[in-house]
Specification:
With about 375 residues, this protein is an alpha/beta fold. It contains eleven helices and 19 strands. Helices cover about 30% and strands about 25% of the residues. Helix 1 packs parallel to helix 6 and helix 3 runs antiparallel to helix 8. The model has no long low-confidence stretch (mean pLDDT about 95).
Length: about 375
């Protein structure tokens, strides 16, 4: 018979919450600490996409598992806003089309739900796309959740079990054995401590495990007022092929060799991703910046580029942009690891570095850690 354990989880983002959800689901007790009143990092600054289409072949199994878990969670916790909307990557050049054709004919195309659509079929599936493009790579397995409401919804679900407590505005300062002491001097005893610090690689994280193989990545994004019509799938442009390992191959090499991105897109390492929120507005991004120190302000040129590309594909003006923001996420630089798990002591672990895959893979990574630690 499995003994009930008490976990203290430090960090209220997607990884911390997914690990709490997995532990609660196995009958354990969880105390979760978050230094802010609510998660404010990459967890709420992303698209909320559950992105199957571009994951590498090595990551495909865990990605599909996580997508299935999200659908199950969405059925039990409607507040997360799970939608099996799929995605369409729109291509505008012959070189991009060749990458899409290779993906649609590839050995994992069926598992990903790939189908290459001509413009008429694209518009039949997503009538809001009335702009200029040659074709669209449809991925029926892509999905979305509402990133800004998913964590509170998951916490409310866990609290209803009577085995979960959330402490907002509680910064963990020290871990002594398996006891966590916060900045108010409160002591939380545990059998197991999981530290999910997001992009906070210094402070307590460094004290526990030193320097670990992760880097920070900065992005810029924006959100519009309601579109006034339904965008029935998530949308990407051909530049997104460059940032997802699932599209690697000679066609992508040819694309990179033959077609240089526009100066702004290349400089900011950009792709267009666009998803409609439940309130009707569009979340649009994004950029990639790897060299620290990161700027404290945002650059207007990427927003102008993203607006122009989105309007070309939609064939209409975007609604007013109502929010712009930057965010930073933690990315493992170990090519063999999806996430970095560093053991600080027998029953103390630091887990971070999921990169842009955090929202997609969160439930499966929580489940995987639970299996690894025999929870």
């Amino acid at each position: 018979m499995m003994l009930t354990m008490r976990l203290v989880i430090i960090g209220g983002g997607i990884l911390g919450t997914a690990h709490a959800f997995a532990a609660i689901g196995r009958g354990h007790e969880v105390v979760q600490l978050e230094r802010e009143t609510e998660a404010r990092g990459a967890t709420v600054r992303n698209f909320g996409l559950v992105w199957v289409s571009g994951r590498s072949a090595a990551e495909l199994a865990i990605t599909l598992r996580s997508r299935m878990l999200w659908e199950e969670i969405g059925g039990r916790v409607p507040g997360v806003g799970f939608r099996p909307a799929g995605s369409i990557t729109l291509v505008r050049t012959e070189a991009e089309l060749a990458v899409a054709e290779a993906a649609a004919a590839g050995p994992t195309a069926a598992e990903r739900g790939f189908e290459l659509l001509d413009p008429d079929r694209v518009r039949a599936l997503n009538p809001a796309l009335r702009g200029k493009f040659l074709a669209g790579l449809h991925c029926s397995n892509d999905a979305a959740v509402e990133s800004r409401q998913a964590m509170p919804a998951l916490r409310a679900h866990m609290e209803a079990t009577g085995r979960y407590s959330f402490y907002a505005g509680a910064e963990a300062r020290t871990v002594t054995g398996t006891a966590v002491i916060d900045d108010r001097g409160r002591r939380f005893e545990a059998d197991l401590v999981l530290v999910c610090p997001g992009a906070a690689h210094t402070g307590l994280t460094r004290e526990l495990v030193g320097d670990i193989p992760v880097r920070r990545v900065r992005l810029q994004m924006m959100q519009t007022a309601p579109l006034g019509e339904s965008l029935t799938t998530a949308v990407a442009d051909g530049d997104s092929f460059r940032y997802y390992p699932g599209f690697a191959g000679p066609e992508l090499e040819r694309l990179n060799r033959e077609e240089s991105q526009a100066f702004t897109a290349a400089r900011h390492k950009m792709q267009l991703l666009c998803v409609q929120r439940l309130h009707g507005g569009l979340t649009i991004g994004d950029t990639h910046e790897y060299d620290e120190p990161f700027a404290f302000d945002v650059d207007e040129a990427p927003y102008e580029h993203l607006t122009a590309v989105a309007e070309e594909l939609l064939g209409r003006k975007l609604p007013t942009v109502v929010r712009r923001w930057a965010g930073v996420y933690s990315q493992s630089i170990d090519p063999t690891a999806i996430v970095t798990r560093a053991q600080a002591a027998d029953d103390v672990w630091v887990i971070t570095g999921a990169g842009g895959r955090g929202m997609t893979l969160g439930p499966a990574l929580g489940e995987e850690t639970a299996d690894l630690l025999n929870l």
